[in-house]
Amino acid sequence: MTYVDIQNACDFAGVPSDEQFLLWAESALKGRRDETELTIRVVNADESQALNHQYRGKDKPTNVLSFPFEAPANIPDFPLIGDLVICATVVEQEAIDQKKPATHHWAHMVIHGVLHLLGYDHIEDSDAEIMEGIEIDILSGLNIPDPYQEI
User: Could you tell me which residues come within 8 angstroms of residue 30 by beta carbon, excluding any fewer than 6 positions away?
Assistant: First the structure.
């Protein structure tokens, strides 16, 4: 079972529904984690920029930030995996720039972020290939085309 706490902290009309967020998160978790809790917080550019600057040293807003939760060693199998912070305006602008439906890009950002919460990364090229392959497979199962394919 997956529990997703959705926090909409911005005034943006194009934010997906709670049901869409849950579907995308569950799709990323399927076969990887059973009992899971996470938070998805949708923010404006100012909040994204402040968090990106504080935690990553980058003074600009970004599409998605992942904050994995590390359970204490004495609590095995704790369901909370962490928090995602998604900037609505960045995601929407990227969708326009990449000429793709906004819902497809939102889905990709949720799946990408959840995979980060599960420990996947893309710093090394070999890790990026693995993570991107998983994302492509999950998105394909949702009838969403490869987000890395050049237009």
Answer: 138
Per the document, the length of the chain is: 151
Is 122 assigned a ligand-binding role in the annotation?
Answer: yes
Enter the CATH code of domain 2-141: 3.40.390.30
Strand partners of residue 68: 82
The full set of domain ranges for the chain reads 2-141
For the segment 95-141, what is each residue's pLDDT rounded down to a tens digit?
999 999 999 999 999 999 999 999 999 888 888 899 999 999 999 99
Q: Is 53 annotated among the ligand-binding residues?
A: no
**How many other C-beta atoms can be found within 10 angstroms of the C-beta atom of residue 20?**
15
